[in-house]
Amino acid sequence: MKLPLLSVKDLKKYYVEPPSSITEYFRREKRIVKAVDGVDLTVDREQTYGLVGESGSGKSTLGRTVIKLEEPTSGEIIFSGRDITDLNEKEMKPIRRHMQIVFQNPYSSLNPRKKIRDIILDPLRIHGFEVDEETLKELLIEVGLDPEYAHRYPHQLSGGERQRVAIARAMAFKPEFVVADEVTSSLDVSVQAQIIKLLKKLQEEFRISYLFISHDLSVVLSISDRVGVMYRGKIVEEGSIDAISESPLHPYTNILISSIPSPGREWKPIIPEEKMHEGEGCRFYSRCPMAREICLASEPELIKIAEDHVVRCFLYE
Ligand SMILES: Nc1ncnc2c1ncn2[C@@H]1O[C@H](COP(=O)(O)OP(=O)(O)OP(=O)(O)O)[C@@H](O)[C@H]1O
Ligand SMILES: [Mg+2]
Question: Which of 123, 180, 284, 304 is deepest in the core (most CB within 10 A)?
């Protein structure tokens, strides 16, 4: 059996929330945000793991933590057979080039005062790589940009072109693993499709694995091999692309699916945010249309439904 490129076990990332008022400041107990609350995840080589969930569910925190841009609170991260959980910044340096991240906003993630060539080359130089003009040119062509763009500034480019620059900057390292965090979210639908196409092409050519993060299930379904549905810090359902698109099980996944507008399917809005259920039991309780008494007793475990399909819900016990 082939070893996965990335394997994460019971990963937790908790933040201490800064006090929002003076009374809170003087109160003793600190508020803990459990952004990632015990996630298991494997990303196979040359595959795309799509992570979907609404805003605040912990997707970006998970993405940043698996590549050690954030220190995990607990858990285990194995990358390419090596335990990187406790490696410090210096020990991470030779591994960093193999794990890149592309962010949502191509406006704020590119330095407006730098030319495109320096935006791409500076991170490489920091890592001690020298890249000649010819390689830079090839890289720009690879991501679908005119090599002349090397001499332009970000404000001279469209949103989609800037996102191509951000992708080129990550790809310049020839990474094995790329976290793509909402990379299409700020773009028009037609441009989104072009960026997805580009990511797939690069994946084939350079044999990359992606952790593809989006709040938009339809985008996730268009690129992923496996999908994990995240809700308030936990994976509530995971499966192959076929399992998730053809037989979604968790009530939350079903809400996400029914909110994808499509001809022939009635559009149903996501259930509005109510007072969240805190404490014992299922974290989806207060929004779940199928909630029963048992759901308050304890947090459901992940239940295996099929070879490639797990769900965290008492409906399937
Ligand atoms: N540095 C931080 N300090 C404190 N809390 C944080 C920090 N980063 C994230 N959080 C909190 O962790 C939770 C998860 O945030 P995260 O950004 O990972 O969610 P997300 O799923 O990426 O959301 P979005 O779709 O809006 O990008 C949120 O409640 C957020 O406020
Ligand atoms: Mg995010």
Answer: 180
Task: Please give all residues whose beta carbon lies within 6 A of any atom in ligand 1, as ranges.
Answer: 15, 17, 33, 35, 53, 55-61, 215
Residue 267 has pLDDT above 60, yes or no: no
**Token couple for 220:** 């996730």
Per-residue pLDDT reduced to its tens digit, 108-133: 788 999 999 999 999 999 888 888 88
Q: pLDDT per residue over 220-248, tens digit each?
A: 999 999 999 999 999 999 999 999 999 99
Distance CA 288, CA 24 (A): 31
pLDDT score at 121: 93
For residue 151, report the distance from its CA to the centre of ligand 1, in Å: 36
**Distance in Å, CA 249 to ligand 1 centroid:** 26
- Quickly list H helices, 147-268: 159-171, 189-206, 217-223, 241-246, 251-258
